[in-house]
C-alpha cells in the first residue's frame, strides 16, 4: 500500500484552528455573529483602501486574515501545562513570552503558544494564550489543598492523543489519517462541559477565593474561553457591535487609533451566564450557573523593538495614571502624540521591526548607482523597500484588562508581585522563547537577503 502523505505541522494547525472555530461557533452563537461582523468590516475596509489591500497582499497578510484568530485557555497544574506544550508542538506552536498577571490582580501566569518563522506564520498564525492558575495565591491552606486534590484527579488529554504526540516526538510524521485523528482528539480537550465535577459548595468557596480559580478547578478540562478574530478596523467593529446585539466593554485596550498601527488593540464582550449541573452527595444534580466564556476582537499592528516597547509602556502608564476626569480615550490620544506616527520615523528611530526586500528598480539599477549608498540611502533611492513586521504576541496590561472585564464586579484583588517565571518554565518543561529575539532575527534575515540581492552584502 502506498504511504499516505504527511500533512505536516502547518496543515494540522490550520485544520485545528478551523475545527476549533466551528466548535466554538456552535457552542457560543454570539461568536458566529461577531465573525460575520468582522468579515463584513474587513471587506469594506479593503474595498475602501486599495493601498492597504496592496500592502497586506505584499506582506502575505491578505491571505491569512480570514483564518487569523487567537484563543485562550486556563490550566490547573504543571503536568497539564507540560502536556499541552507537547500537544501544541505537534502543530508547530511554541511557547513565546512570559506574562505575569498576578501584579494586576489576576492569579495566573501565562505564555502564548504560536508558530514562529515566516513560512509557518504565513500558513496559519493561530495562537493560544495559555494561563496556569497559581493556587499558591489562595490564602486558606485547606481550600488550597482541596483545589490541588481535585485537579490531581483529572486527566485533560486522552491516551490516544498522547500516543500520537509520542509518535511525533520520536520523529515519525503523522499521516493524513492520524493528523485528522489528532485534530479530533485535541479538540476534545477544549470542549465546554455543562456538568461540573464538584458540588456547589466547593464551587462557591473556590469562587469566593477567585472566580478564575473556580473556572479552572471545577470542570473536566480547560474549555476554550474565547476565540478572537483579527479585524482591520477595531473602532468600526466596536461601534457596530450593539446593532448586532453584542455589548462591548467600554474601552479598547492597547494603543490609541493611529495612521501607523502598532502592537495590538483589543476589545471584548461580556461573558455569558451558563447553566451548570453541580454534583451532590446523593447523586442528584444541583442546578447552578457559571460565567466564563466571552468574545473578543483584535487589530494587529507593527512589532516594536525594545526601545519602542519601552516608549509604549511609559506612555500607556502615563495615560492610565493621568486621565484625571478626561475620557480615557482622549488622554490616551494626547499622550501618544509623543510616539512617531510615520513608518519612516518609526524605522529611523529604531522603534519598530521591519522586513526588507530589494525592489525591481534596485535589482535593475547599475552597480555604480547602488555602491556607496547605506541602508537609508538605498531606501531613499527606491532600491530597498520595507514593511513593518506584524506583532504576533500579546500585551500584559491589555490581557489583565480583558481578564478583568469578565470577572464581574468587586474590583481587582491585589497580589504581591513575585518572580514566578522559573516555576512556570519548570512546569512547562522548557524556557519560553523571547519574542524580541524572534522579530530581530526575522528583520536581520530579510535585510541580509535584500542586500545580497543588491550585491551589497558588504553593508
Ligand atoms: C485570557 C485573557 C487575555 C488576551 O487576548 O490578551 C487574552 C483569559 O481570559 O484566559 O485573551
Ligand atoms: Ni484574548
TrEMBL record:
Essential cofactor(s): Fe(2+)
Keyword Oxidoreductase among UniProt keywords: yes
Listed CDD domains: VOC_YdcJ_like
Enzyme class: oxidoreductase
InterPro entries linked to this entry: HGLS, YdcJ_bac-like
Signal peptide positions (record): none
Annotated EC: 1.13.11.93
Keywords attached to this entry: Dioxygenase, Iron, Oxidoreductase
Chain segments annotated as coiled-coil in the UniProt record: none
Classification via Gene3D superfamilies: Uncharacterised protein PF07063, DUF1338 (3.10.180.80)
GO molecular function: dioxygenase activity
SMART domains: DUF1338
Family to which the UniProt record says this protein belongs: Belongs to the 2-oxoadipate dioxygenase/decarboxylase family.
Protein name, UniProt field: 2-oxoadipate dioxygenase/decarboxylase
